[in-house]
Description:
The complex is a heterodimer.
Chain A: H1 2-15, H2 17-21, H3 50-59, H4 84-92, E1 97-100, E2 103-106, E3 108-113, E4 118-123, E5 139-141, E6 144-147, E7 150-153, E8 163-165, E9 168-172, E10 177-182, E11 185-188, E12 208-210, H5 215-240, H6 249-269, H7 273-295, H8 308-325, H9 328-335, H10 342-389, H11 396-439, H12 447-455
Helix pairs in contact in A: 1-7, 1-8, 4-10, 5-7, 6-7, 6-11, 7-11, 8-10, 8-11, 10-11
Chain B: H1 5-34, H2 39-66
Helix pairs in contact in B: 1-2
Amino acid sequence: MKRYFSFIIIVFLSLSSQQLFGQQHNHDNHDGHDHSTHDHSTHDHGSHNSATKDAKAHADDGHHAPDCAHIESHEWIEGDEYDPAPTAFHHVGDANVYSIGPLQIPLPCMLYAKDTKKFDFFLSNKFGFKSIGHGDGKYAYNKYVLDGGTVKRIKDLSFPDGKVAINGIVHDHDTHKAYVCAEGKMWETHKKSTADFGIFGGDVDSNFFDFSITKNVMSMLIVFLLMAWMFFAIARAYRNRRGEAPRGLQGFIEPIFLFIQDEVCKPFLGDKYMRYQPFIMSLFFFILGLNLWGQVPFLGGSNVTGNLAFTAVLALFAFFVTTFSGNKHYWEHIFWMPGVPAWVKTILTPVELLGVFIKPITLALRLFANITAGHMVIIIFVSLIFMFGKLGGNPTAGYLTSIGSGLLSIFIMAIELLVAFIQAFVFAILTASYIGAAVEDHHHEGDHSHDVEEAH
Amino acid sequence: MTGSLAALGMGLAVIGAGIGIGQVGAKAMEAIARQPEAVGDIRSNMILMAALVEGAALIAIVFSFLVR
Lengths: 456, 68
């Protein structure tokens, strides 16, 4: 059981990563708009005067101010121009619904409101998904609404509890605020519940906690069960068929396992590699499984390894394992590098100390950026169809583009398959090299100067 | 013309990383051509080095997001 221990711990702590750092999702993030040209932070939405409206419309390149007269429909259906940015951010983000093609599987929402001190537990189909798309809900439930796949809460406590039909949700693209249109009024919502300090559109001052099992958490659970089944089956095969040639699944996994053992664990971790091998293997196979799960088309397209919260938790593991297994020489090399002049040490020590933290940060960012970029490129290629289809009100260009765009998407997906393996391998090899540097024995380059000094 | 300076910074960071990874790849190919029997070692070291070069660019890209 001890051997599976690190894997199980990784899985369970990763599962809670969504709740720790929040669902990274930014529905109304429009890049490319120059935010410095206008300041509408104190914009009064109740009484627009025409001058503000004109200035705003001009600065927004056609994006209207939030106004219940112009409720945004789902970005696939209407509008003169197709803007791929919200679609892209929506599809790489987390969601409270698992969509497989037209099928929308509701997920459990676990929400705690700080103002009413009430815990809500319900399935997300209470929000009433629209027939096409999986963005906005048709109903508000106990002041919660579904906006672009994620749950938000209406600020005003006078909004009725229970199931209330809403007309739609509008966004202010400058302040990134969302407003619910219901009962002839605009109701401001809290930001989504995250502790990401607003970097990804969530906020700590949000007035509710979201502990929901989201699409990403669901994908992690599925991959965890698949991995557990696979490795228990393989372990059983090794026990029952001792001394025989591997067969089936066993034969598929064995070369991969041995490759990681020979290329990553043994060269970097030295003689005591068995101590850290379970950790490295758990990281590798869990990341690989999630990468590949996110690659399967029409299967929800979960982007778990492309979620900064998740990769940050994995990097935190690498950080803690490295820090706690670091021996005397490791810390000596960080705080007082042997064999260099004292004035160099004053420069080197801060740099080395910074490096201790930068290493896991880049570990998290690398995985996140590579996987998200891959998903984004595919979404943009698919978006090209709609962009050309909207040109001149004639869909012919869209049909023609779809051929080229489909081929390009398949090409990128093939590359992404490679990237899925490479990034899992890179994460494993870098973690192994960081741990290896921390547990390394006495032989290192710094010692040569010691020898020279002693020789004198 | 709209857009932010951050996008420009992102582009510059990517140029640097591109040159760096290109160098890593080119030298690794040369090394493999000279010593085809060491292909395994060279490949894993190449990936490791490319990943480290990439790290610098990633920090730049994330900062360009944050300091927008």
